[in-house]
Design goal:
The complex is a heterodimer of chains A (223) and B (343). Chain A is an alpha/beta fold. The longest helix of chain A has 18 residues. Chain A contains 8 helices and 10 strands. Chain A is globular. In chain A, helix 6 links the parallel strand 5 and strand 6. With 343 residues, chain B is mostly helical. Chain B has a single domain, classed as ABC transporter involved in vitamin B12 uptake, BtuC. Chain B is built from 14 helices and no strands. In chain B, helix 1 packs antiparallel against helix 3, helix 1 runs parallel beside helix 13 and helix 4 packs parallel to helix 7. The two termini of chain B are 17 Å apart. Classes of the chains: A alpha/beta (223), B mainly alpha (343). Chain B: It is a multi-pass membrane protein. Chain B: Belongs to the binding-protein-dependent transport system permease family. FecCD subfamily. Chain B: It is found in: Cell membrane. Chain B: Keywords: Cell membrane, Membrane, Transmembrane, Transmembrane helix, Transport. Chain B: Pfam families: FecCD.
Chain lengths: 223, 343
């Protein structure tokens, strides 16, 4: 499920409120029918995992170590990995197909590989919901499509819900099951087709520069 | 990832290194004592010369223990600060601990003239210095803690700590401007740092602080590892940032505060040892890093103390200068050789 909106409309704020990184500004958040502010941060961390735009600061971690940190909510007081933890880690590595990288250090990775590693870390956290904030920034168009395709495959193979904010509307329209469209005063939710039929994209951007072309279902420069 | 046995062997080797250098340190000093007699006095056998036993047991042994405690304690607090602030330049002093201690001691020594002669004569004992520096660091620390309770941003604490350091430095220079040459000298000698002033009682008190600080640090290990991902990820993994921050600050102040109180402001070790250790063992897991840093700090401090006595001579150089003289070139050399800054 993609979250789309112009810069500054509050996509990141919404995602950060959902994942508990920041307190919600207003209103109630329900997760599986549970009120979010009644859960403690540890319970929340077994429900939602995140991939953020901020890169992990210590690049001296190996890929395996970084993914293993996804198991923190489940490990004992000093962080020893149990057999179950290791199974989850190896599963996550396999799911995003980076087993050849697992002994490399993070500073040796390309942006695309690092993004996959971070996704694997979120998977290892074993949560029903994974939230990603702009997972395709810094990537070329091939890797953008690759990551989004990977996310789609993951929803099918692991039965998780994946919610991500993106500016790659054209790719999202082709790859997502559902889209949340955030605008200044309203929010529309639906499948890409439903939203196109409702004309939801036409006025997303000022039309003097960018228009939505319904026949090809893409955004184009208004010439 | 090399297998865990590799790290275990490495840690055992480091521990052996600590013991070895401690023994070398014990055997050197201004009085030349034969090695068999050193062993005899340690294990309570009859020694040829009773004053040798006194030198070993009452002077050299407490000094070796002090070197181990200060080196390892400062190194651990440096590691904690570097991980907490995600800043390779952080050390125990960023919380304003040593600047607070300097202010306390400066007030006692140089302020004595300002507050009248009565206090001057009574207060200038060793304990008054220890108490003054403890109170000084405690006050600055409380101010930093109050500020940190109000702040969400950990970086702001770093800057506030540095601001306190420059404030207290300013007060100290004003005080030194108005004080006599003798007072100034006494303050300068304190700021050199010293490992040799501790009696057995002091060593026991220091080690109690050390043990408490290290235990708190051990309980932080898991969250320190999570902090390697950055604060936002750590929060998403269920880590309470402010609680964790408080624990780390408590551990650091127990370690660095007590050490500064007894041994003076020793600056370099806390900053350098974590880098040295990371260059030698390229690992970021604090379960390995913490014990490695403890031993690395002890080894560096023992080497520096051995060098400070200028083996074969009667002079003892200020420990604070030696730590930087030996440590800085080593850090520079390691960074250049590896060409990779591991953090």
């Amino acid at each position: 499920m993609a979250l789309i909106g112009v810069n500054g409309v509050g996509k990141s704020t919404l995602l950060r409120s959902l994942s508990g990184i920041q307190d919600s500004l207003n209103g109630k958040i329900l997760i599986n029918g549970l009120q979010k502010n009644k859960l403690n941060s540890l319970e929340l961390s077994t429900l939602i995992s995140v991939v953020l735009t901020e890169q992990p600061i210590s690049k001296n971690l190996s890929v395996y170590e970084l993914i293993a940190l996804g198991r923190q909510p489940y490990t004992n007081w000093i962080g020893t990995l149990s057999e179950e933890d290791k199974t989850h880690i190896n599963q996550a590595i396999e799911l995003v197909n980076i087993s050849s990288l697992q002994h490399k250090k993070c500073y040796e990775l390309s942006d695309g590989q690092l993004q996959k590693t971070l996704i694997a870390r979120a998977l290892a956290q074993n949560t029903p919901l994974v939230i990603l904030d702009e997972p395709t920034t810094h990537l070329d168009i091939y890797h953008q499509a690759h990551v989004l395709k990977l996310l789609k495959d993951l929803t099918q193979r692991t039965n998780k819900s994946i919610l991500f904010a993106t500016h790659e509307i054209n790719l999202a329209l082709q790859l997502c099951d559902k889209i949340i469209l955030m605008e200044k005063d309203k929010v529309s939710i639906g499948t890409p087709l439903e939203l196109i039929e409702k004309d939801a994209f036409t006025n997303l951007f000022p039309t003097d520069l960018i228009i939505f072309d319904r026949s090809s279902q893409t955004f184009k420069i208004n010439t | 990832m090399p297998n865990p046995n590799y790290y275990n062997k490495l840690l055992i080797a480091l521990f052996g290194g600590v013991i070895l250098i401690a023994c070398i340190n014990l055997s050197l000093g201004s009085v030349n004592i034969p090695i068999p007699d050193i062993l005899k006095s340690l294990f309570n056998y009859k020694v040829e010369n009773e004053s040798w036993r006194y030198i070993i047991l009452e002077y050299r042994l407490p000094k070796v223990l002090t070197a181990i405690l200060t080196g390892s304690g400062l190194a651990v607090s440096g590691l904690l600060m570097q991980t907490l602030f995600r800043n390779p330049l952080a050390g125990p002093y960023v919380l304003g601990l040593s600047s607070g201690a300097s202010l306390g001691v400066a007030l006692i020594i140089m302020g004595a003239g300002l507050f009248g002669g009565v206090t001057g004569a009574v207060l200038l004992s060793k304990w008054s210095l220890v108490i003054a520096s403890s109170i000084g660091s405690l006050l600055v620390l409380l101010a930093v803690l109050l500020a940190s309770a109000k702040l969400r941003d950990t970086m702001a604490i770093l800057i506030i700590g540095l601001m306190f350091a420059s404030l207290t430095a300013a007060v100290v220079s004003v005080l030194s401007y108005f004080s006599s040459a003798a007072q100034l000298q006494q303050y300068v000698f304190w700021s050199f740092g010293s490992l040799g002033n501790l009696s057995w009682n002091d060593v026991i008190i220091l080690s109690l602080f050390w043990i408490t600080g290290i235990i708190v640090a051990i309980f932080c290990i898991k969250n320190l590892n999570t902090l390697l991902l950055g604060e936002q990820y750590a929060r998403s993994l269920g880590v309470s940032i402010s609680k964790n921050r408080l624990l780390i600050i408590i551990s650091t102040s127990l370690l660095a505060g007590s050490i500064t109180a007894f041994a003076g402001p020793i600056a370099f070790v806390g900053l350098a040892v974590p880098h040295l250790v990371r260059q030698i063992i390229p690992v970021n897991d604090h379960r390995i890093l913490l014990p490695a840093v403890i031993m690395g700090g002890a080894i560096l401090m023992l080497i520096c103390d051995t060098a400070a006595q200028l083996p074969g001579s009667e002079f003892t150089l200020p420990i604070n200068a030696i730590t930087s003289l030996i440590g800085a070139p080593v850090v520079i050399w390691l960074l250049i050789r590896k060409r990779k800054f591991l953090f």
